[in-house]
Amino acid sequence: MTEERQLQSQLKILFLDDHAGLRDGIGFLLSQKNGRLKFFYATNREESEKILRENSEISLAIIDLNLEDESKDGLSALKAFRKIKADLKAIIFTMYADPIHIERSLKAGVQGYVTKNAEIEELENAILTVASGKTCFNSAASRIMQQMISPDNVLDEKFSYMDYKSLTKSEQEVFSLLAQKKETDEIAKMLGKKEKTVINQRSIIYQKLNVHDRLELIEFAKNIGVLF
Predict the structure, then answer these.
(1) What is the pLDDT of residues 17-50, one digit of tens each?
(2) Does residue 165 share a domain with residue 92?
(3) Residue range 97-106, pLDDT digits in tens
(4) What is the reported pTM?
(5) What are phi and psi of 171, to 5 degrees?
(6) Which of 41, 151, 220, 226 makes a 20 to 30 Å CA pair with 28?
(7) Residues near 73 by Cβ (< 8 Å), separated by ≥ 6?
(8) Are 68 and 45 in contact (CB under 8 A)?
């Protein structure tokens, strides 16, 4: 195949995620794995809209739900993108796998939903499946969808997603790492904070979520779909 034909057969994808290192790393791995995939990277809605206007051949967007500017979350961004390109296909790529986020995403008309704990092959499969005109929800999201439609599979009511939503984005990051059994000194190094700051945030998280120890926090994370 000539270089011109290769360019014509490329699948051009907008990748919106404000965690640039993670986003660019995943995009690089996917591009190396599958030469058909060409990514355009954006950190926020404004950058994404500019990319879409300048690259009309983009047919699919991978979108993080929880952007830094909470007034412009991923689904709000998707609505704006479809004013630029009405037939834009969308895959949500997020740390969340809970009924509230999945239901909102389905109502917004997404074609795919992949959680960030997924293997790189799952995301590649979702891209190719959605690009072909089908829908694709990875295994973690599919389990929650099954809970949504089955009366025998209800989530524990004492673990409120709205309580979790009350955490700031910084507290959500600490919550996620605590749920992964990271110690406070490890978390401090990973997030570039003082350990005392992390310890204070842990206390605030416990208070907001009404949990008393790490075991309850881990159970909370599993029930709302942040930990699998």
Answers:
(1) 988 888 999 999 999 999 999 999 999 999 999 9
(2) no
(3) 777 788 888 8
(4) 0.66
(5) -70, -35
(6) 226
(7) 65, 66, 67
(8) no
